[in-house]
UniProtKB/TrEMBL annotation, chain A:
Keywords: Signal. Residues 1-29 form the signal peptide. It comes from the Bacteria. This is Sugar ABC transporter substrate-binding protein. It comes from Myceligenerans pegani. SUPFAM superfamilies: Periplasmic binding protein-like II (SSF53850). The keyword tRNA processing does not apply.
TrEMBL record, chain B:
Belongs to the binding-protein-dependent transport system permease family. CDD domains: TM_PBP2. It comes from Myceligenerans pegani. This is Sugar ABC transporter permease. The keyword Transmembrane helix applies. It is a multi-pass membrane protein.
């Protein structure tokens, strides 16, 4: 794909000569953004590339409201699956394609892209508008999308991770958990309630830096380990890292999902909603789905707590989907208008009134958690979500000082590859095909190569 | 004569545009891939792009993942092709007789091949191989066997299973055509000569099917070398299921290493050409010798 994009640009005359068909196919997707004018006068057509999460679909549903108040701007949505989006947008921006005026990107990419000068600096346009109230955005989320205190993206919704448990199952076993449990307590409880019918604790085992290593990195950090220290020395085969992974693997083996390598967020969500698992440590946004009586058998039966800890105070991760504006856009002013609208307080009101209060994008604005209707609709999980979102510390989540901002990932380009490879090797450990020691030794080697590139 | 020659020239001239398109479309990607394979280029590090000679190739050959992926590809493709051909032969023989509902049975047998690969992989992942709700473990429980964590414990086998399921109809169709092209008179003569069904099958039918088996193996190997969907959807390249095409995908789209991925691509093409010329030729020789002996 990359190759063809580059090729297309290099060989346009040739392709033109050879056949208009091929050209039409290539250019089709990009027609929206490029051509239209200098932002301001005349109608502007914006192309927005976004991940196809429910919250983004809601945004598309409501874009008519924006177009009504901004009659000279129309917004076209291009929805993609998460990995496709990452590929498409990375290639478009890295190769200077300029198809998109607005993109949704994850918090992992923001600092990397900002360093590459691919993203427009949004600090000025957002902070100059008092009504927009940029300080209302959750500070930790704002931190992960900033580089040197300059804001390069705006969080559309954010999440941390927490412990979600089925109160019925735990009550039956006579177990109560505090709001700040430790991993040892949680592991003991999981082993106690685990049976053939009920999974003690659902934990991800599916390979991938964003699947297995999202929860596992937080475990490593709270056990006192890290991927890298502040000088980019890798610490993957350190005792702390090893102890944490061993703990995780053992817990999955004793009380986790039976087919861990198949298990990711979606799989755990299914197991949980059917009442087949007692506990689950995962994204806070899952709570909204567990409490949806139409899709979940456990709505109203759930309890929530901070993510389990060992050596640290807090162990939640931090992730946000953000709206950013590529430098390549021709319509920056219009794009900023839309980004402001979609992340404003009014937008949250609009979603609540038009689509229902449980569908308001969570974890972006603190003021959302003061809207009475929202607090009422999400009373079982909104307060604790807000609590966790404010408590996590993306500048130093573990015991090590780090030279990047982020919790369950390292904001270097090599990290997705590194996390992916190590997590694949760990599936062999889950299956008993490999020992943990050699796997982490190889992980250390890969990590050190990545660290040396910094 | 002259009009003939002029006609020939005109016909040739008319061919040129199509030929040029064909050359452009097939050769430019190859040349571009070659070019990129000599570049150091991580998409997320636009500042560090540059010519690096054979560094990428050195990386490909010194890193263990190319060889292990090659091995995985051979195992996965080989087992799937053999499995699909054997099963296809069995079903083709069974379908090559008259019975009530024959055409319905044939259509039903073909359906797995008509399902899109990604959809098939999803069906297998969720409805058949899911640990708790999957039909496979339900079937095992009926005969008193413990459930299997397919993707965790047997990743390569799950991929092979899906591929056999999907490509058996393909083999069956070709082999069925072979069976139906067999002359009834020859078979009749064999039975007059006192050959039983088994003897007829091994001495008459199998040699006749030789070229059909060859074409099945050849086409199935080519198709299965590119297999990607079940690996990406079901196993994510774990435990011996990381085939060359998945490795390529990882280097290009997870590693974002354009240069390295291009080098992997070039190496894959070279290896495929070697395999195609050496292995397939040897294979066919075995078949033709058998055929000659029986003739």
């Amino acid at each position: 794909m990359t190759l063809t994009t580059r090729m297309r640009r290099a060989t346009v005359p040739a392709v033109l000569a050879a056949g208009a068909l091929a050209m039409a196919g290539c250019a089709g997707a990009g027609g929206g953004g490029g051509g239209t004018g200098d932002g301001g006068d005349g109608p502007v057509e914006l192309t927005l590339a976004t991940v196809n999460n429910p919250q983004m679909k809601d945004m598309e549903e409501l874009k008519g409201e924006f177009e009504e108040s901004h009659p000279d701007i129309t917004v076209n949505f291009v929805q993609m699956e998460e990995n496709d989006l990452r590929d498409a947008v990375t290639k478009d921006i890295a190769t200077g394609g300029g198809q998109y005026d607005i993109v949704t990107i994850g918090s992992y990419e923001v600092p990397i892209w900002a360093e590459n000068e691919w993203l427009a600096d949004l600090t000025e346009p957002l902070s100059s508008d008092a009504e927009y109230d940029v300080d209302d955005l959750f500070a930790p989320v704002k931190d992960v999308v900033s580089v040197d205190d300059r804001l390069y993206a705006v969080p559309f919704y954010g999440e941390s991770s927490m412990l979600m448990y089925n109160e019925e199952i735990l009550d039956e076993a006579g177990i109560t958990l505090s709001e700040n449990p430790t991993w040892d307590e949680v592991a003991e409880a999981a082993r106690e309630v685990h049976s053939d019918d009920v999974t003690g604790i659902c934990l991800r085992g599916k390979p991938g830096w964003g699947e297995l290593f999202a929860p596992l990195t937080t475990v490593v950090q709270t056990f006192g380990g890290t991927w890298f220290d502040a000088d980019w020395n890798a610490h993957v085969n350190d005792p702390e890292f090893r102890e944490a992974v061993q703990f995780y693997v053992d817990l999955v083996e004793d009380a986790g999902p039976a087919d861990p390598v198949s298990t990711g967020f979606t799989e755990c969500l299914n197991t949980m909603t059917q009442g087949k698992a007692a506990m689950w440590v995962d994204a806070t946004v899952a709570a909204g789905m567990l409490e949806d009586p139409e899709a979940s058998e456990v709505a109203g039966k759930m309890g929530y707590a901070h993510a389990p800890v060992k050596e640290t105070e807090e162990s939640g991760w931090l992730w946000s989907w953000n709206l950013a504006i590529p430098q390549t856009t021709q319509n920056q002013d219009a794009a900023i208008e839309f980004v402001k609208w979609a992340t404003s307080k009014e937008y949250h009101q609009l979603v609540g009134e038009e689509l229902g209060w449980t569908r308001v994008p969570p974890g972006a604005r603190q003021s959302t958690y003061e809207i009475p209707e929202y607090v009422e609709a999400a009373e079982s999980f909104a307060p604790i979500t807000q609590d966790i979102m404010l408590a996590v510390n993306p500048t130093q989540p573990g015991l090590y000082e780090q030279s990047w901002t982020g919790i369950q990932y390292v904001t270097i380009p090599e990290f997705q590859d590194l996390g992916n490879q190590v997590s694949q090797d760990l599936s062999d450990v889950f299956a008993g095909r490999s020992e943990l020691g050699p796997v982490l030794d190889r992980g250390q080697q890969l990590a050190q190569e990545a660290g040396d590139a910094q | 004569m002259t009009t003939g020659r002029r006609g020939l020239a005109i016909s040739r001239a008319l061919l040129w545009p199509a030929l040029i398109v064909a050359i452009l479309l097939t050769q430019i990607p190859l040349v571009a891939t070659l070019y990129y394979s000599f570049q150091e280029w991580n998409l997320l590090r636009p500042g560090q792009r540059g010519f690096v000679g054979f560094d990428n190739y050195v990386k490909v050959l010194s890193d263990g993942s190319f060889l292990s992926s090659l091995g995985n590809t051979v195992v996965v493709t080989g087992s799937a092709v053999v499995g699909a051909t054997l099963l296809g032969l069995l079903f083709a023989v069974l379908l090559d007789r008259k019975f009530l509902g024959q055409s319905v049975a044939r259509t039903l047998m073909i359906t797995p091949f008509l399902v899109m690969p990604a959809a098939a992989a999803l069906i297998w992942k969720w409805s058949i191989l899911d640990f708790t709700y999957g039909m496979a473990n339900w079937g095992l429980s009926l005969v008193g066997l413990p459930p299997v964590a397919w993707n965790t414990d047997l990743p390569a086998a799950t991929v092979i299973m899906v591929l056999i399921w999907q490509y058996t109809p393909f083999a069956m169709l070709i082999l069925l055509a072979g069976l139906q092209s067999q002359s009834r008179e020859v078979l009749e003569a064999a039975s007059v000569d006192g050959a039983g069904p088994l003897r007829t099958f091994t001495s008459m039918t199998l040699p006749h099917l030789r070229q059909y088996v060859e074409i099945t193996v050849l086409l199935a190997t080519i198709l299965l070398l590119q297999v990607f969907d079940p690996v990406a959807i079901m196993t994510n390249g774990t435990g011996g299921s990381k085939t060359l095409s998945y490795l390529l995908y990882e280097r290009a789209f997870i590693g974002l290493e354009v240069g390295e991925a291009a080098a992997y691509g070039v190496m894959t093409v070279i290896v495929t050409i070697i395999v195609a010329t050496v292995a397939l030729r040897t294979l066919f020789k075995v078949f033709s010798e058998e055929g000659l002996m029986n003739r």
